[in-house]
Specification:
The chain has 16 helices and no strands. By secondary structure, the protein is mostly helical. It has one domain (3-175, 186-377): Growth Hormone, Chain: A (Up-down Bundle), CATH 1.20.1250. Helix 4 (90-119) packs antiparallel against helix 15 (319-348), helix 11 (230-255) runs parallel beside helix 13 (285-293) and helix 15 (319-348) packs antiparallel against helix 16 (351-377).
């Protein structure tokens, strides 16, 4: 298995996320956009995930050229992001974010499907490859904070461009997904979606990502308003992903011992706790640190479980569309809703109430996951 060639993509992809998620809203704030405008612009990136992964997933499943689709998408994302260097108006940046994120968001689901195909029966070892994405995130988020403190947030677009160039270069090194091209197993997408557990998992993914809206959109600005430096903010982001890395190192063993549905319930319950702590203890760095450690569950465990459930339900040539639906329902529709409601609520009722709404979203998802677990145990 081409371990390092697959891992390099994750390193640069999630490294770019380490620049966008904590700092892009700070960059937009430096351009004097309002919280509502920032929420709308961040929602654009999420909204393209509703459409783009499904279009590219359908093309990849029908042509059998998954890695070619990934390479084209990453190159076009790099090309269109360059527009950020030529204007800073709301309309211009909205157009740039629509175009670049349409292709950027299309790449990851197809690469995930390719990685799982390369693993074959050893899908439990997915986290040993995906962990390099977490390492990339930590390197960028921890290193970029002090740089922005020293040189200003205006350098952020150049950093993002460099990281996206790394993503594209990594796709050129990645092996082709010949397994998918030769797969004659056909799973009906319509029949798969009619299964109760599949729809329930997709709804859970939607609610889970909606709950992350205030965190991904305003967490850095929230901490800045409480007097934290950008260096300290970067370290708090990095702490969360470091906990995720630690979990990923042992998660393949945990998968052998516990049902995926049970692990999903655990991840969602800890996510609810995390939002309650962040919303109520912003001035307590110890509590914030403990909340960041819960990132191991709210993203690390959740994502590893969800992606394997999707891989279980969507077989053969529907794998690409399965991963696309996971991305579009969760990170797309759920993420867009999360960014929008957090933008409106942040101005209207403040941070604490906004994070309470996030906790409510993940609490409802927990209830649905408990029903999934109960259904599995009752068989």
């Amino acid at each position: 298995m081409p371990y390092w060639r697959l891992s390099a993509f994750y390193f640069f992809f999630f490294g770019s996320l380490g620049a966008f998620a904590p700092y892009w809203s700070v960059y937009l704030h430096s351009l004097e956009f309002s919280p509502l405008q920032i929420g709308e612009l961040m929602a654009i990136m999420m909204a393209t995930r509703i459409v783009a992964p499904n279009i590219w997933g359908w093309i990849a499943d029908h042509t059998g050229h998954r890695m070619r689709i990934v390479r084209i998408g990453c190159f076009l994302a790099l090309l269109f992001f360059a527009g950020a260097f030529f204007g800073t108006s709301y309309a211009w940046l909205a157009a740039v974010m629509v175009l670049f994120s349409f292709f950027w968001n299309a790449a990851l689901p197809q690469f995930e499907a390719a990685t799982l195909n390369h693993l074959g029966r050893d899908t439990h070892r997915y986290t040993q490859i995906r962990v390099w994405g977490s390492v990339g995130f930590i390197v960028v988020v921890a290193g970029l904070g002090p740089l922005l403190d020293r040189h200003g947030v205006g350098m952020l677009p150049a950093v993002c461009f460099f990281l996206m160039a790394g993503i594209w270069f990594a796709t050129l090194l990645a092996p082709n997904d010949d397994t998918q091209a030769n797969d004659t197993t056909h799973g009906s997408l319509r029949d798969t979606l009619r299964k109760g557990p599949v729809l329930a998992v997709l709804v859970v993914c939607f609610l889970m990502q909606a709950s992350h809206g205030p965190y991904y959109t305003f967490y850095s600005l929230y901490l800045e308003s409480h007097g934290y430096s950008r260096g300290a903010i970067g370290l708090l982001w990095a702490l969360g992903v470091a906990a995720e890395v630690a979990l990923y190192m042992v998660l393949h063993r945990i998968f052998h011992r516990y049902a995926l549905e049970l692990l999903l319930v655990v991840a969602l319950a800890f996510t609810t706790l995390r939002w309650l702590v962040i919303g109520n203890f912003a001035d307590n760095v110890v509590m914030l640190g403990l909340a960041q450690l819960l990132h191991a569950f709210s993203f690390g465990l959740y994502h590893a479980v969800a992606i394997q459930l999707i891989h279980r339900y969507f077989v053969g040539r529907s794998q690409g569309r399965g991963q696309a639906l996971y991305s579009s329902f969760g990170f797309g529709a759920g993420g867009a809703l999360g960014s929008l409601y957090s933008g409106y609520m942040w101005e209207a009722v403040g941070p604490t109430a906004t994070f309470l709404a996030a906790a409510a979203c993940s609490a409802v998802a927990t209830i649905i996951a408990v029903r999934l677990l109960w259904r599995k145990e009752s068989r």
